Amino acid sequence: MHALGPVDLTLAQGEFYSVVGPSGCGKSTLLDVLAGLSAPTEGTILFEGQEVRGSVPAGIGVVFQEDATFAWLTVWDNIAFGLRRAGMDAAEIERRVSYALGFMGLTDFSKAYPSQLSGGMRQRVCIARTLVMQPRLILLDEPFGALDAQTRLLMGDELLRLWRETGATVMLITHALDEAAMLSDRIGVMSARPGRLIADIETGWPRERDSRIASDDAFGNITAELWGLLREESMKAAGMAEKGRA
Amino acid sequence: MTRLGWIRLAVVAGFVLLIEVLCRTGVIGKLTMIPPSAMAVELWALLKSGKADADIVQTLRNVAVAFALSVVGGFVLGVGLHSITRLRRAVDPFLATYYAIPFFAFYPLLVSIFGLNAAPIILIGFLFGVVAMIINTINGLDRVPRVLLKTARVCGMDPVRTALMIKLPSAAPHLFTGAKLAIAYSFIGVIAAEFIMSTSGLGYSIAYAFNNFDNKTMYALMLFIITLVTVINAVFHVWERRIMARRGR
């Protein structure tokens, strides 16, 4: 049994790409494979022309849905963790961590432990920890899935700001159609398990944008188009067959 | 101190006071028990005389060795079993039923193997403590969130680094529980073993005093052991609380 069907996908440098699909379609598997956390049964993954296999290449950052903060370290040490592992000199670590703390609005919490923070702030810590590594490709696996609706909208804005500032390529896995429609340059739609990409939608948003585009007519159209593509797939995933009603 | 703390203190103090009154009024006979205040006086005299020093040092050394072996051995064995899934499944029932074995029944066997010295005593303390540490190490490792292990891989960490920098701190609350049990079990094992078949140590001294109707020494030594174990546990507890408080657990 394959979790994921054949997928052919090319990400353009600097684009914001999202993947939506019904639950259990293999979205997270796709991300794990792209990151080098799992090996594909067939085919190859290239990152900047180099094959990805068995390990996560430098230059790729990953943010997960679950709380990945280290409970035993302060916010500052959490964010510096990857830099220290990479053996960077103290002054540069200091500079990058301070910048990331400021960027994510965490400066006042640098000495706090994760247990003292809200879920949204903990996710900011994880994003900051990825940000300081200056990745050229950021993979996010439903990073806002555990957050409430308003926090999600704000975190979406933060993510757009981060994407513009760093110039990194972003791939976001999400089950929230509005989130994909609001944030992305391009959206891939996946089928029910084993997932394949069944559609590719360009949103045409300007680079300077934020959550307020939700009031744009095009936003409603894109969301509706996504749902049109996904409704049947979601029913398949949920075990509900389309009945032949009039 | 919190209100609950005061209540706890009151319960203990009230109990001691009750015993004191019962002894002083003769409800509890002199040959059965001496009053707690007399125990304290006797203990003070005994410690000042230095007569029990050698036994105290010996018991503490045996407990310390048994405890250290339990914690280090239990951690290493726990990590090993956790990484070999099949072996772990195979020995799981043994671990679960381990404490149903009455070890002391085997003490004569240990003496005939190792001789009448510290080795069988330390071994009993170790056998008592080590499995609590193994079980808690495995429990702790089971509960390391998978996302942290993925994060370690994203950081390009090798298995040894991952074990020391991610698994160990993440499992720390469980390791603490294991260590606390190991220290209690080491005390029980060592003192009980000294009691049965030894020629020195605190356990032996209590048994010796008991056999010679030397109630004063016997109760003084009991008070010493209770105080010692309470202090050690309290220190451990405070240390654990201080580390865990920042984690909000």
Q: Could you name the ranges of chain B where pLDDT drops below 50 across 5 or more consecutive residues?
A: none
* Oligomeric composition of the shown chains: heterodimer
In this structure, how is the largest beta sheet of chain B organized?
none
- Tell the overall outline of chain A: globular
* End-to-end Cα distance of chain A: 35 Å
Biggest β-sheet strands, sense, barrel of chain A? 6 strands, mixed
Radius of gyration of chain B: 22 Å
Number of strands of chain A: 8
Largest binding interface between chains: A-B, 22 and 20 residues
Low-confidence residue ranges of chain A: none
Structure class of chain B: mainly alpha
Number of helices of chain A: 7
Total strand count of chain B, please?
0
Task: Name the beta content range of chain B.
Answer: under 5%
As laid out across the biggest beta sheet of chain A, the strand order is 4-5-6-1-7-8
Strand content of chain A: 5-15%
Radius of gyration of chain A in whole Å, from Cα? 19 Å
Question: What can you tell me about this protein's structure?
Answer:
The complex is a heterodimer of chains A (246) and B (249). Chain A is of the alpha/beta class. Chain A contains seven helices and eight strands, in the order E-H-E-E-E-H-H-H-E-H-E-H-E-E-H. Chain A has helices at residues 27-35, 75-85, 90-103, 119-131, 149-166, 177-183, 217-237; strands spanning 16-20, 46-47, 50-51, 60-63, 137-141, 169-174, 186-190, 197-202. A six-stranded mixed beta sheet of chain A has the order 4-5-6-1-7-8, sandwiched between helices. A two-stranded antiparallel ribbon of chain A has the order 2-3. The radius of gyration of chain A is 19 Å and the shape is globular. The mean pLDDT of chain A is 87. Chain B has 249 residues and is mainly alpha-helical. Chain B contains ten helices and no strands. Chain B has helices at residues 3-24, 36-49, 53-83, 85-97, 107-114, 118-142, 146-154, 159-196, 202-211, 215-245. In chain B, helix 8 runs parallel beside helix 9. The longest helix of chain B has 38 residues, at 159-196. Chain B is globular. The A-B interface holds A 35, 37, 55-56, 58, 60-62, 64, 66-68, 70-72, 81-82, 85, 113-116 and B 145-148, 150-151, 153-157, 161, 166, 169-170, 172, 246-249.
